[in-house]
């Protein structure tokens, strides 16, 4: 199997996120990718490959032009206003307010985001562009006949929608890859999101589409971030009605409860008739994850990998969350091993 990876992930290295009422060191940090890469190497799972440059066009298939323009130009505007320190939004439009793009950089940051946990920095654009290229490199390999590839994306992507960032995500790598499969000739593509948090960005992007099935297993939004999407009654809209499936699970869920949801999601993907599969792989469902409340053990990730392999489709596994840094490498490698065995 091939692992796609770019060193440019290092360029996203935020100082702090707003969490639990405090500005604390970012959980989503460069060390995450370093550890996963080290464990993939040590496990002898195959070559580590640079993605090459697939350009902006496949990213623009998913993200709005004004949003991409904002991401590329925000940093110097922020520095001119506030100096060389992380850019963080501070307030958002809610019920009854208007969605008119402001002129000032502070207003634009609010307009194009949904939380204060996702700092935009000097290197953000270069890092997120490279992360999307990693996903595109993996998608090209799978489209070219590889059974499975691993895109070691960082920053992650599944919380990013067409025109907003949040949840440590700026560009939706999994959605960009799924669209690349479509544009490469696959009639139907499935995305299975096993990150602890609901993949609100991916769901929003494909909500009204019948050609991309989205299934997500995650902590119940009644209890957990991102709070405002991921309920079981969200099943897609318009032409996409029936092409979304959500499996919200309560805090404290261990393998028993998780496995049932996974079996159901896998069954739905089988019925859908996809030609390619994208996995949004978060391992923040691990029992010791510092910001999450599921209870999966190391070996449960082997079972997740095996269940994914059982779907029997050409598969791109895209890295999303997972913040128990010491355990991250083992858990990700277990998914990959579980798939390959
Ligand atoms: C890709 C990904 O996994 N993004 C997750 C973003 C989560 N950000 C908000 C986390 C809020 C956590 N609240 C509980 C903290 C426990 N101290
Ligand atoms: Zn997550």
Automatic annotation (TrEMBL):
<dbReference type="InterPro" id="IPR000286">
    <property type="entry name" value="HDACs"/>
</dbReference>
<keyword id="KW-0862">Zinc</keyword>
<comment type="similarity">
    <text>Belongs to the histone deacetylase family.</text>
</comment>
<dbReference type="InterPro" id="IPR037138">
    <property type="entry name" value="His_deacetylse_dom_sf"/>
</dbReference>
<dbReference type="GO" id="GO:0016787">
    <property type="term" value="F:hydrolase activity"/>
</dbReference>
<dbReference type="InterPro" id="IPR023696">
    <property type="entry name" value="Ureohydrolase_dom_sf"/>
</dbReference>
<keyword id="KW-0479">Metal-binding</keyword>
<dbReference type="Pfam" id="PF00850">
    <property type="entry name" value="Hist_deacetyl"/>
</dbReference>
<dbReference type="GO" id="GO:0040029">
    <property type="term" value="P:epigenetic regulation of gene expression"/>
</dbReference>
<dbReference type="GO" id="GO:0004407">
    <property type="term" value="F:histone deacetylase activity"/>
</dbReference>
<dbReference type="InterPro" id="IPR023801">
    <property type="entry name" value="His_deacetylse_dom"/>
</dbReference>
<protein>
    <submittedName>
        <fullName>Acetylpolyamine aminohydrolase</fullName>
    </submittedName>
</protein>
<feature type="domain" description="Histone deacetylase">
    <location>
        <begin position="28"/>
        <end position="337"/>
    </location>
</feature>
<dbReference type="GO" id="GO:0046872">
    <property type="term" value="F:metal ion binding"/>
</dbReference>
<keyword id="KW-0378">Hydrolase</keyword>
């Amino acid at each position: 199997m091939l692992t796609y990876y770019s060193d440019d992930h290092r360029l996203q290295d935020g100082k702090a996120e707003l969490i639990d009422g405090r500005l604390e060191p970012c959980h989503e940090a460069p060390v995450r990718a370093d550890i996963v890469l080290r464990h993939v190497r040590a496990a002898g799972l195959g070559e580590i490959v640079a993605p090459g440059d697939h350009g902006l066009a496949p990213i623009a298939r998913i993200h709005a032009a004004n949003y991409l323009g904002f991401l590329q130009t925000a940093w110097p505007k922020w520095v001119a206003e506030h100096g060389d320190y992380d850019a963080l939004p501070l307030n958002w439009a809610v019920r009854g307010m208007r969605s008119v793009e402001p002129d000032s950089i502070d207003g634009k940051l609010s307009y194009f985001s949904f939380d204060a946990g996702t700092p935009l920095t000097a290197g953000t654009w270069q890092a997120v562009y490279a992360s999307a290229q990693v996903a595109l490199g993996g998608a090209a390999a799978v489209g070219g006949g590889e059974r499975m590839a691993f895109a070691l994306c960082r920053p992650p992507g599944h919380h990013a929608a067409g025109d907003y960032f949040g949840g440590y995500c700026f560009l939706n790598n999994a959605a960009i890859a799924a669209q690349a499969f479509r544009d490469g000739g696959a009639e139907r593509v499935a995305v299975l999101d096993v990150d602890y948090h609901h993949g609100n960005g991916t769901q929003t992007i494909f909500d009204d589409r019948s050609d991309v099935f989205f299934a997500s297993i995650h902590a119940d939004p009644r209890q957990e971030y991102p709070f405002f999407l991921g309920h079981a009654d969200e099943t897609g809209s318009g032409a996409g009605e029936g092409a979304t499936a959500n499996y919200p699970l309560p805090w404290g869920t261990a393998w028993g409860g998780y496995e049932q949801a996974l079996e159901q999601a896998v069954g739905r993907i089988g019925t859908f008739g996809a030609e390619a599969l994208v996995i949004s792989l978060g391992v923040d469902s691990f029992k010791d994850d510092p910001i999450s409340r599921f209870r999966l053990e190391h070996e449960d990730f082997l079972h997740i990998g095996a269940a994914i392999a059982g779907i029997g489709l050409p598969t791109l596994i895209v890295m999303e969350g997972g913040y128990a840094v010491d355990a991250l490498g083992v858990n990700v490698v277990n998914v990959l091993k579980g798939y390959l065995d």
